[in-house]
Design a protein that fits this description.
Layout lengths: L1 H25 L9 H21 L23 H35 L5 H25 L20 H8 L2
Helix pairs in contact: 1-2, 2-3, 3-4
Length: 174
């Protein structure tokens, strides 16, 4: 799902980039790369392209006993996969922040160039509404993952499967 979302983001960004270049070419009120919005757009396009390329060039996962990747367990050790994960994660966050700014500044620029009503307030209202929904879903997932009640009504604790009786005998002998 993550890969498909990144590819869709790249394709939509590329289509928007091409549409904007054609629109600026046909508009006598502005020139290519005359505003900060234009430069941020180029940086965004480079970051999105780099993010997609980085996603397909990731190093292989180190297999653990259970077959899951848990990062490097050794202190001070940093693998190629850890470096890749760091770059991929923080370039994704940077892309998100840049894209939020880019849409806002694009809406402002559009209303300025074409004399239409500014939609910037509606945009930020929509962004914050989506953020609230995402946080609510995340909190719901966190609360749903808490220990559930058993059939007899007792709460099931995270360590209910662990037998501590042998440890208690050792502590009493001290």
């Amino acid at each position: 799902m993550h890969v498909l979302a990144n590819i869709a983001c790249f394709l939509l960004t590329l289509v928007c980039f091409i549409v904007v270049i054609v629109a600026v070419e046909n508009n006598p009120n502005t020139d290519h790369f005359s505003r900060s919005h234009h430069y941020v757009g180029i940086v965004l396009m480079m970051f999105v392209t780099g993010q997609i390329m980085n996603g397909f060039m990731r190093p292989p996962v180190k297999k653990e006993a259970l077959g899951a990747y848990h990062g490097n367990q050794e202190e001070g050790s940093w693998s190629a996969r850890d470096s890749w994960h760091f770059v991929h994660k923080y370039s994704g966050v940077t892309l998100l922040i840049l894209s939020l700014y880019q849409v806002s500044s694009g809406l402002h620029l559009y209303s300025k160039l074409f004399g239409s009503k500014s939609l910037v307030k509606i945009y930020w209202g929509t962004v914050f509404t989506c953020l609230i929904f995402v946080l609510a879903i995340k909190l719901g997932i966190i609360f749903d993952s808490r220990p559930k009640s058993t059939f007899d009504g007792n709460k099931q604790h995270p360590f209910s499967d662990v037998d501590f009786s042998s440890n208690a005998d050792e502590l009493n002998s001290l």
